[in-house]
Each structure stands twice: as structure tokens, then as C-alpha cells.
Amino acid sequence: MAWIYLFAAGLLECTWSATMKMSEGFSKFGYSLATIIALAGSMALLILATKTLPIALAYPIWTGIGAAGSIIIGATVFKEHIPPMTWIFVVFLLIGVIGIKLTSGE
């Protein structure tokens, strides 16, 4: 169950980064509220995941999901230009996250 919590926490990490941008500096109430709720949910799920998973494993996976997901959201939803070389490093990031999981013994 901890892995499900961790994955969901990573997805909420992506959600709050997107809604934070949509809040336009917290000037739009609905998006601002969504940001705060998603941020709190992400942290709560990370806390639940770390009840059984080591922080040395959970935190880098959580941040990796959030980082890669936010880049993908930026490119697809917000039409931000992501240079081709950046995509190579996103792949490296995902490989690193998968590698951490596979070598963790969890």
C-alpha cells in the first residue's frame, strides 16, 4: 500500500505545481485553493508512505515523479518549449527513479 501512497503523492505533486501556475501568483482563488489542497494531500500521502518505506527511497522517487511530471505538464498543458536536450535528462531522471526502486529491495 505504501507504493500506492507514494505514487499518488507524486501525482499530487504534479497537480499542485500545475494549479500553482494556473493560480497566477495565487490571484485566482479556485486554483489557489486547489494548489493548497493538492500540496497538503501530496505531503500527507508521502507521510503515509514513509511509515513503511525508507525516506532515502521514498523522497527521491516522490520528487522524481513530481519533477518529470511537471515538465511533461508544462510541455503538454502549458505549451512551454522544452529543448530536446532537456527531454534526454527527463529520461535519465525517470531511469534514475526506476533504478532506485529496483535496487531498493523493497
Automatic annotation (TrEMBL):
<keyword id="KW-1133">Transmembrane helix</keyword>
<feature type="transmembrane region" description="Helical">
    <location>
        <begin position="57"/>
        <end position="78"/>
    </location>
</feature>
<feature type="transmembrane region" description="Helical">
    <location>
        <begin position="33"/>
        <end position="50"/>
    </location>
</feature>
<keyword id="KW-0812">Transmembrane</keyword>
<dbReference type="InterPro" id="IPR000390">
    <property type="entry name" value="Small_drug/metabolite_transptr"/>
</dbReference>
<keyword id="KW-0813">Transport</keyword>
<dbReference type="InterPro" id="IPR037185">
    <property type="entry name" value="EmrE-like"/>
</dbReference>
<keyword id="KW-1003">Cell membrane</keyword>
<dbReference type="InterPro" id="IPR045324">
    <property type="entry name" value="Small_multidrug_res"/>
</dbReference>
<keyword id="KW-0472">Membrane</keyword>
<dbReference type="Pfam" id="PF00893">
    <property type="entry name" value="Multi_Drug_Res"/>
</dbReference>
<protein>
    <submittedName>
        <fullName>QacE family quaternary ammonium compound efflux SMR transporter</fullName>
    </submittedName>
</protein>
<feature type="transmembrane region" description="Helical">
    <location>
        <begin position="84"/>
        <end position="103"/>
    </location>
</feature>
<comment type="similarity">
    <text>Belongs to the drug/metabolite transporter (DMT) superfamily. Small multidrug resistance (SMR) (TC 2.A.7.1) family.</text>
</comment>
